[in-house]
Specification:
Blueprint: H1 3-17, H2 37-42, H3 45-49, E1 60-64, E2 78-83, H4 93-107, E3 125-129, H5 136-147, H6 153-162, H7 164-191, E4 196-199, H8 205-208, H9 212-227, E5 231-235, E6 253-259, E7 267-272, E8 275-280, E9 289-292, E10 294-299, E11 308-309, E12 317-318, E13 325-330, H10 332-350, H11 356-365, H12 386-395
Parallel strand pairs: 1-3, 1-4, 2-3, 4-5, 5-6, 6-9
Antiparallel strand pairs: 7-8, 10-13, 11-12
Helix pairs in contact: 4-10, 5-6, 7-9, 10-11, 10-12, 11-12
């Protein structure tokens, strides 16, 4: 008898051994955790869900370094798709945590005690993993910290000066890696009919255009997505500084900034390696809307084995596993983007006839004005309101 027949027989026997009337009740995939309620209430998500929680026809593409495809909140809704060639795809927490949390904010489904639900849980997610090349700067930083756990920023700068030629080449190659892989990911998702694409990355034109050949690849991919009527959402960046331009145009790409639950723009100063570092949501004329990322519940890699890996593109990784979910004090613009992408996905689910430009317009029109009156460079059109935008979408006479 073949191994496949033996395994199949065991599966059938196991299923027959469990009386159907003793099966545990299925958990409610739409159960909102207590820690999620403040920002769900602020954005009136329940009222929006009375219209739609998403459509199986509205695929949301998520571009990131990697994903925990077997996380309980994602394994039934996040499909592996594209993997960038010629880079590493290591399954360590450092590689997959960011994509995991981003995907969970959009399409997480509550399947266990202490779990969470995403904002557009009925929209299928398709992953595009851009991986990572060997990260020379992080490798150097880890070497400095291993040699001296109390190392300061000056110690790191001294080490960088010793490796300046190597790091200069790395910086140039890094831009090429980001543009090449992101462009490939966009093209893959467009080909697979994604209706919304989330890119929780900082893509300022001022940096990209130092490398015009690499930048052209990315801009062309954005143009193809826009031509295919895809809504693209990107993060504004976390440097607390003015950013004048991003790929695409204000009418075709949503740029998401981050706020506190008080509707103030997120800004803070953190102490690292002996110096104060200013962080906060970037601002400027291309900022579209804001989303609350304070105390945000999100999924994290769920297997502790993923936190202790000797070989990664960033060097050995040894972290302490705590839980499959975390409440982040502030999720920054990486978390703001998937909130905005979720709203765009709900609008496209309720009104699949609306062109991407109309979806973007409605996301902005439904936002709550939280800064200077009207659209302003610090807060864009305001903080997103799911219910208001869904009402506008249902009443809108646009569409093709």
């Amino acid at each position: 008898m073949s191994l496949a027949c033996i395994v199949l027989g065991l599966v059938v026997a196991a299923a027959a051994a469990v009386p159907q009337d003793q099966a545990a009740p299925a958990p409610d995939p739409y159960l909102v955790a207590d820690s999620q309620r403040p920002y769900f209430d602020l954005m009136h998500v329940a009222d929006a869900w009375a219209v739609t929680r998403g459509s199986p026809d509205c695929i949301v593409g998520v571009i990131d370094t990697g994903f925990d495809f077997f996380h309980p909140a994602l394994k039934n809704n996040l499909s592996p798709g594209w993997f960038a060639p010629d880079v590493y795809h290591t399954t360590c927490a450092g590689m997959i945590a960011h994509g995991t949390l981003v995907a969970s904010i959009i399409g997480g489904r509550n399947t266990e005690d202490g779990g969470m639900v995403g904002l557009a849980p009925d929209c299928p997610l398709l992953a595009a993993s851009i991986g990572m090349p060997e990260h020379k700067l992080l490798l150097l930083q880890r070497q400095v910290m291993e040699a001296n756990p109390n190392a300061s920023a000056d110690d790191l700068r001294a080490a960088m000066a010793e490796h300046q030629d190597e790091l200069r080449d790395f910086g140039r190659n890094w831009i090429g890696y980001v543009t090449r892989t992101t462009a490939g990911a966009i093209d893959y998702l467009v080909e697979r009919k994604a209706r919304v694409i989330n890119i929780s990355a900082f893509l300022p034109r001022a940096t990209l255009e130092r490398y015009p050949e690499a930048a052209a690849q990315l801009y062309e991919a954005f143009d193809r997505a826009i031509e295919a009527d895809v809504v693209i959402v990107i993060g504004a960046g976390n440097n607390a500084e003015e950013t004048l331009s991003y790929p695409g145009a204000a009418e075709t790409v949503l740029v998401a900034g981050a706020t506190l639950l008080s509707d103030e723009r997120w800004a803070e100063t953190v102490h690292a390696m002996g110096m104060d570092v200013k962080q906060g949501s970037n601002y400027g004329p291309r900022l579209s809307v804001m989303a609350p990322t304070q105390n945000l519940l999100r999924a994290m890699p769920h297997d502790k084995a993923l936190y202790e890996v000797q070989g990664t593109p960033m060097g050995p990784e040894v972290q302490t596993y705590t839980a499959s979910y975390e409440v982040a004090p502030n999720g920054a613009t990486s978390s703001a983007a998937p909130i905005v992408a979720s709203l765009a996905a709900l609008i496209r689910s309720a009104r699949p006839d609306l062109p991407a430009r109309d979806v973007i317009r409605i996301v902005k029109q439904g936002a709550v004005d939280i800064g200077d009156p009207g659209e302003d460079p610090m807060t864009g059109s305001g903080r997103v309101d799911f219910a208001a935008s869904l009402r506008l979408a249902l009443a809108d006479e646009g569409g093709g």
